[in-house]
Amino acid sequence: MSNASSIRCLITAGPTREFIDPVRFISNPSTGKMGFALAEAALEAGWNVDLVAGPVALEEPDGAILYPVVTAEEMFHQVDALFDACDVLIMTAAVSDFRPVVQHAKKEKKDMASMNIELERTTDILKTMTDRKVHQTVVGFAAETNDVVTYAKEKLLSKNLDFIVANEVGQPGVGFAADTNEVLLIAADGSSVKLGPSTKAAIAKELIQLVTPSA
Ligand code: CTP
Ligand code: CA
Question: Signal peptide position in this chain (predicted)?
Answer without folding.
Answer: none
